[in-house]
């Protein structure tokens, strides 16, 4: 489902008095603290957490007090994550291709570039490319005090994956 109708509704319902006053650079000095972060090399995702060929580029790993981790994840056709869950939930923003996101109850959503999927905290799920297309997404996870809060589980079976592919066409 596209986020655009939801954003339009929010904008339409917003009270115009909520807009901040315009910034005046001549009377309001401010300092912007920016940090240039060198890009990380592409790494192959660990086979114990993924089926097929998956590649990761970390966008950001948090420093206290921040807890948001973000990564660009690229899946080759047929590649997918294991079942997993996140203590703080996960948001996926698909940047390229077509993929699938599945949950334990058998719900499968077909996603493509521009789609956003929110996986609630604690929900066991998986995501990956379709059997015939590549898929890339930005994965954002809110971690906990012990790390990113992800619990990795067993692989999605070939049968589960085939059912998801066939049911989502």
Mind explaining what this structure looks like?
This protein has a domain at 57-169: Sandwich (Jelly Rolls), CATH 2.60.120. It is 12% helix and 37% strand. It has helices spanning 4-13, 158-167; strands spanning 43-44, 50-51, 54-60, 68-75, 80-81, 84-86, 90-103, 108-112, 116-119, 125-129, 135-142, 150-152. Strands 1, 3, 4, 7, 8, 9, 10 and 11 form an eight-stranded antiparallel β-sheet that branches. A two-stranded antiparallel sheet has the order 2-5. The two termini are 16 Å apart.
Determine the structural class based on helices, strands and strand pairing.
mainly beta
Helix and strand pattern? HEEEEEEEEEEEEH
Assign the CATH architecture of the domain at 57-169: Sandwich
**CATH fold-level name of the domain at 57-169:** Jelly Rolls
Name given to the CATH homologous superfamily of the domain at 57-169 = Jelly Rolls
Helix content: 10-25%
Number of strands: 12
From the N-terminal CA to the C-terminal CA, the straight-line distance is 16 Å
Question: How many whole angstroms does the radius of gyration measure?
Answer: 19 Å
Give the integer mean of the pLDDT values. 86
- Our estimate of the beta-strand percent is 35-45%
């Amino acid at each position: 489902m596209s986020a655009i109708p939801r954003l339009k509704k929010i904008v339409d319902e917003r009270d115009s008095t909520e807009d901040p006053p315009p910034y005046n650079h001549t009377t309001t000095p401010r300092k912007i603290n920016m940090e240039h972060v060198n890009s990380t090399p592409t790494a192959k995702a660990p086979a114990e957490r993924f089926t097929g060929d998956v590649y990761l580029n970390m966008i950001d790993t948090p420093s206290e007090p921040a807890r948001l981790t973000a990564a660009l994840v690229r899946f080759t056709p047929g590649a997918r994550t294991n079942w997993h869950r996140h203590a703080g939930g996960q948001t996926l923003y698909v940047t390229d291709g077509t993929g699938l996101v599945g949950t334990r109850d058998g719900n499968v959503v077909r996603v493509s570039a521009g789609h956003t999927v929110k996986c609630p905290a604690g929900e066991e799920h998986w995501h990956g490319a379709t059997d015939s297309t590549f898929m890339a997404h930005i994965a954002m996870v809110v971690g906990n005090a012990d790390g990113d809060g992800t619990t990795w589980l067993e692989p999605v079976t070939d049968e589960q994956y085939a059912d998801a592919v066939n049911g989502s066409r």
